[in-house]
């Protein structure tokens, strides 16, 4: 009970903080960057190892520059995530813009549901909130539940503020089959790390063999949904655009693993252009192919 009480106090603090205007939150971000980078050294060893493995062709100085830019952006991402608790519809529409929302309606006119693949790149959560205003059809956001039930419930409420329907990852296929007679949009993050015992496929991603989920490929073929990729760009501090890039309209016609490689390699191209906006502090490469076959 005491632990739960402290968690609820923490949530109240986050809620009150989210009421602050963006300009003030970015002042907090400037200080937060100094703390997480210079004082706490938050996962700097993980970031440095990931960057060294992903970009062996770059100099140490170039990788250090990416590292510092990443932590500056990470601090911004933290305060923007807090702001999502109370951000208004007007602010979301102003700060996140879909460049080709008409593509959604074109697929619907053809009777196609849509699977939108995102990466942990730029503010993918704010983009998902904005997508609620692109369509009036059922909009599902697939997420990985947090181990802490109180915080998990809290983030589910944030993701569903504008009508989105959060769906736990393990329930994804069941939910999509349940709504297969409707036209729907489902957002899935394509660069999650699978649990070791569930790994069946590795692909090359950022210069390393990388375990990937095959769920996007399997689900899209099961419900015959068009698959697009969120190409996100940061315009300036607190402002983003995203373009829906078609990967396939007919997933059943793709070869095994072809669609998986398509969305993984598209994300890699985005990262190589502006690497500071990907989540480098995530322990993405927890195991290698030889670990699976031991």
Instruction: Indicate the structural class.
Output: alpha/beta
Distance between the termini: 43 Å
Question: How is the biggest beta sheet arranged?
Answer: 7 strands, mixed
Q: Summarize the amount of helix as a percent range.
A: 40-55%
Beta strands, count:
9
Order of SSEs: HHHHHEHEHEHEHEEEHEEHH
Oligomeric state of the chains present here = single chain
Q: What is the CA-atom radius of gyration, in angstroms? A: 19 Å
**What spatial form do the alpha-carbon principal axes imply?**
globular
Number of separate domains: 1
Can you give the mean pLDDT?
92
Q: Give the DSSP E fraction (strand runs of 2 or more residues).
A: 15-25%
- Taking pLDDT < 50 over at least 5 consecutive residues as the criterion, the unreliable ranges are none
Quickly count the helices: 12
- Trace the largest sheet across and list its strands: 1-9-8-2-5-3-4
Would you kindly provide a written description of the structure presented here, covering whatever features stand out?
The protein is of the alpha/beta class. It has one domain (2-292). The chain has twelve helices and nine strands. The chain has helices spanning 2-18, 22-39, 44-54, 60-83, 89-95, 102-109, 124-131, 149-159, 172-178, 215-223, 258-273, 289-292, and strands spanning 96-98, 114-118, 138-143, 165-168, 184-189, 202-205, 208-211, 226-236, 239-248. The strands form two sheets. It has a seven-stranded mixed sheet, with helices on both faces. Strands 6-7 form a two-stranded antiparallel sheet. The relative contact order is 0.15. It comes from Mucilaginibacter pineti.
